[in-house]
Amino acid sequence: MEDGFSGTPLSDAVEWDAYVAAHAGATPFHSRAWCEAITKATGHRCHLVTARDASGALTGILPLHHIRSPLFGQALVGSGFAVDGGILADDPEVAAALAEGAVAMAASLGVPSVELRGGPLPGGEGWRVEEGVYAGFARDLATDDDAELLAIPRKQRAEVRKVLESALTVTTGRDAAERRDHYRVYATSVRNLGTPVFPKALFDAVLDAFGDAADILTVREDGRPVASVLSLYWRGTVMPYWGGGLADARRLRANELLYFALMRHARERGCTRFDFGRSKVGTGPFAYKKNWGFEPQPLVYARWLAPGEAARDTNPNSAKYRLRVDLWKKLPLWAANRIGPLIARGLG
């Protein structure tokens, strides 16, 4: 077991890339591209816990970002700013060894918690399973627009049909103008929800790291961006990851066009599956994704806590943050965009 990555590229980076490329269970959040982008944008160091066989070949990896925040505390997170990731191993024995390595890494760094968002669930002392909070939504894409419409439940299908007849337009790309418009829309959207926005550098770093495997799709009214999403493309699956809309988006049905157009765009890129991402159970986004005909799949995460330590609370819906959320919604956008990234980088 070894720690091979501490904020600078591994000397055996090619080996890391090859292991992820060959493993059927790998996600974009196991990739070196993701891990280095997070470190570059946020400063949170990434430690790669690895397992090797007798010949020295990799048999498992676990990327862990060391998230530190004066508001939310610190944890080793696998991996930072991701909704999946966790242990990636050849077999259960290796997975158990990686979990032990994560605990040893936390002890060596003086970190009280390890958070794994996917992968095999570790057992053993200090580990606990967390379920019932999040669900994931994914299904296969249809073969064309007509079939895609029929895959959407009747009420939501009617909304999509209406917006397809509107004058709204769609653009896609990765250039500076698309990035600027996406960030403005996304930042406004999360401010209106009472959530601090991530730093723009995070979006830029991910787009740069993933190259053609990431892009932005934006819905516009007379050229003005009203809804936008940054998506990842991974093994034939499109993953709308950071998306949002202005206040006018609901009136214009811009979000309906956003995701239907993304389905079309993904098919044109050769994708066969649409991963709508995770949502907290019982929230508006959870219901919205069900309205599109996606069935929720419970997500089970794992957390290790040192003796006597309490888990980080990074849930904006918790009672602890209710007053702060209400106040945040009232901030001018310029202030939210100035302060938000300083806070949000600690959520991890």
Provide keyphrases for this structure.
Aminopeptidase; 2 domains; 12 helices; 38% helix; globular; disordered N terminus
Overall description:
With 348 residues, this protein is α+β, with helices and mostly antiparallel strands. The protein has two domains: 2-133 and 299-312, 3-Layer(aba) Sandwich (Aminopeptidase); 136-296, 3-Layer(aba) Sandwich (Aminopeptidase), CATH 3.40.630. Helix content is 38%, strand content 28%. The protein has twelve helices and 13 strands. Strands 1, 2, 3, 4, 5, 6, 7, 8, 9, 10, 11, 12 and 13 form a 13-stranded mixed beta sheet that branches. β3 and β4 (73-78) form a beta hairpin. α2 (32-42) runs antiparallel to α7. The longest helix has 18 residues, at 92-109. 44% of the residues are buried.
From the 3D structure, determine the CATH topology of the largest domain: Aminopeptidase
Query: Kindly, what is the distance between the CA atoms of the first and last residues, rounded to a whole number of angstroms?
Result: 25 Å
The rough form would be described as globular
The Rg value, from CA coordinates, equals: 20 Å
Low-pLDDT stretches are 1-10
Can you count the beta strands?
A: 13
- In the CATH hierarchy, the architecture of the largest domain is 3-Layer(aba) Sandwich
Portion in beta strands? 25-35%
Structural class: alpha+beta
Q: Determine the mean pLDDT.
A: 91
What is the tally of helical segments? 12
Tally of discrete structural domains: 2
Q: Major β-sheet, in short?
A: 13 strands, mixed
What's the order of the H and E elements? Answer: EHHEEEEHEEHHEHHEEEHHEHEHH
Q: How is the quaternary structure best described?
A: single chain
| Overall helicity | 25-40%
CATH superfamily of the largest domain: Gcn5-related N-acetyltransferase (GNAT)
CATH level-1 class of the largest domain: Alpha Beta
